[in-house]
Design goal:
By secondary structure, this protein is α+β, with helices and mostly antiparallel strands. It contains nine helices and 14 strands. Strands 4-5-8-7-9-13 form a six-stranded mixed β-sheet. A hairpin with a 4-residue loop joins strand 7 and strand 8. Helix 5 runs parallel beside helix 8.
């Protein structure tokens, strides 16, 4: 069995945090080599082989790998005892249309799928809570990072200042070219455009990394506890999936966390 090659992050000694790369799996073409997203059109046998390899690497069961079906919204799901006791069909329904996911259960791997969108991984070591957020430009515009932090801080009772955060591989400002309508949408939503936007030729370029850093700090996360990987998926498309380069029918990065048992 092949071994997935992962990019690991140092969030907490109690937590394994990572993003997948395109290496160490079974996919071909625009899904080469490693994809576990079931909604992107990949071959089912390759997906299951890649999932099995990740489960073996993490030392967990299939039921312990949990990822939502995202829709660029701002809704989330908490993985607790009630969720874990649900039958498979009910679990799938609870994960539908969720763009952030959180748990305090050891041995459960939660994560989000991206391919240019911004994955944000957070950990409160004081409360043993982990959170994964999918922030595409629509989610960033809707302030999903601050929404998720405030909602989960209220749910679990931790202070946002206790969080450590990682912004994983995603499209950089240099590569994220947008039209006036997207620029106007961010400006209309109250973002500091001098901080997150620059005009290059006839197009605007939005800095989604900086926009999400701002949202995290606005929610109470300390700036010095936010680490941005600085890896552009468009530029490094040989190592990380980029839907802008290869189209929607391509693989997805899986960025996940697991509290060590």
């Amino acid at each position: 069995m092949k071994t997935p090659q992962l990019l690991y992050y140092d969030l907490s000694p109690r937590v394994t945090a990572f993003s997948s790369t395109r290496h160490g799996g079974y996919g071909t073409g625009t899904y080469a080599e490693w994809n576990i997203n079931r909604y992107s059109g990949d071959d089912a046998a390759h997906i299951e082989a890649n999932r099995a390899a990740l489960l073996e690497l993490l030392g967990i069961s299939s039921e312990a790998l949990i990822m939502p079906h995202q829709n660029h919204g701002t809704n989330g799901v908490v993985i607790d005892d009630a969720f874990l006791s649900l039958p498979p069909e009910a679990k799938a329904a609870a994960l539908e249309g969720r763009d952030y996911i959180a748990t305090d259960k050891p041995g459960i791997c939660i994560g989000v799928s991206t391919a240019d969108c911004v994955p944000i991984l957070l950990c409160s070591a004081t409360h043993g809570v982990i959170i994964a957020i999918h922030a595409g430009w629509r989610g960033t515009l809707s302030r999903i990072a601050s929404i998720a932090v405030r909602a989960m801080a209220g749910h679990y009772g931790f202070a946002p200042s206790s969080l450590c955060a990682v912004i994983g591989p995603s499209i950089s400002q240099a590569a994220f070219e947008v039209g006036d309508e997207v620029y106007d949408a961010f400006r209309g939503a109250g973002f500091d455009m001098d901080e997150i936007a620059v005009r290059i030729g006839e197009k605007w370029h939005i800095d989604l990394w900086r926009a999400n850093e701002q949202e995290l700090t606005a929610a109470g996360v300390r700036a010095e506890r936010i680490h941005t990987a600085g890896i552009c998926t468009w530029t490094h498309h040989n190592d990380f999936f980029s839907a802008r380069r290869e189209g929607i029918r391509s693989g997805r990065i899986f960025s996940g966390l697991i509290i060590k048992s």
